[in-house]
């Protein structure tokens, strides 16, 4: 049995207009990610114990990448394609190049 955790992302009883990119759905008072339709770390008794650790490290990694580099897709007019299975993500065809290094690395 395979549980498709991302299936609920497309259900309108979990997310308002589920096919629309709407970053504000995560802001209060909507907080749509706090409902049962979004469960990247599982739900209930066996919820991932590494959840907080992962949030911290993903946040630090993203901040460092954005602090040091500016990226652009290759080719520059590449149209982003999404693959919903097994987890919602961009397809493996996306290629990025470093367009600018924004900061010097500490020595
Ligand atoms: C982005 C990274 C991660 C994701 C998406 C993730 C997701 C999950 C999911 C979906 C489960 C299963 C929940 C269930 O059975 O209902 C789980 C369980 C678990 N995860 Fe993670 N996890 C991540 C990283 C980590 C890390 C870094 C650690 C440890 C440092 C960790 C430790 C655990 C443990 C111990 C369980 C079993 C909990 C239990 O059965 O009581 N996970 N995780």
Describe the structure.
This protein is α+β, with helices and mostly antiparallel strands. It has one domain (5-101). The protein is built from 1 helix and 4 strands. It has one helix at residues 51-68; strands at residues 69-73, 82-83, 89-90, 96-101. The strands form 2 sheets. It has a two-stranded antiparallel ribbon with strand order 1-4. Strands 2-3 form a two-stranded antiparallel sheet. A hairpin with a 5-residue loop joins strand 2 (82-83) and strand 3 (89-90). The longest helix is centred in the middle third of the chain and has 18 residues, at 51-68. The radius of gyration is 17 Å and the shape is globular. 1% of the residues are buried. The mean pLDDT is 90. Protoporphyrin IX containing FE (HEM) is lined by residues 40-42, 46-50, 53-54.
Report a brief summary of the structure.
The protein is an alpha+beta fold and 107 residues long.
Query: What is the averaged pLDDT score?
Result: 90
Task: Tell me the distance between the termini.
Answer: 50 Å
Query: Would you list the SSEs in sequence order as H and E?
Result: HEEEE
Which ligands are bound?
Answer: protoporphyrin IX containing FE
Strand order of the largest sheet: 1-4
Q: Main beta sheet: strand number and arrangement? A: 2 strands, antiparallel
In terms of DSSP E residues, the strand content is 5-15%
Unreliable runs: none
Number of strands: 4
Helix content, binned percent: 10-25%
Write down the overall geometry. globular
Strand-pairing-aware structural class = alpha+beta
Radius of gyration, Cα only, in angstroms?
17 Å
Task: Please work out how many helical segments DSSP would assign.
Answer: 1
Number of domains: 1
């Amino acid at each position: 049995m395979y549980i498709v955790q991302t299936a609920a992302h497309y259900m309108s009883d979990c997310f308002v207009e589920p096919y629309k990119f709407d970053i504000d759905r995560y802001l209060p008072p909507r907080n749509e990610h706090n409902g049962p339709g979004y469960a990247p770390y599982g739900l209930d008794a066996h919820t991932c114990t590494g959840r907080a650790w992962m949030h911290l490290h993903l946040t630090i990694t993203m901040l460092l990448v954005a602090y040091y580099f500016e990226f652009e897709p290759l080719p520059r007019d590449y149209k982003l394609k999404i693959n919903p299975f097994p987890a919602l993500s961009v397809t493996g065809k996306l290629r990025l190049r470093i367009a600018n290094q924004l900061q010097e690395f500490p020595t």
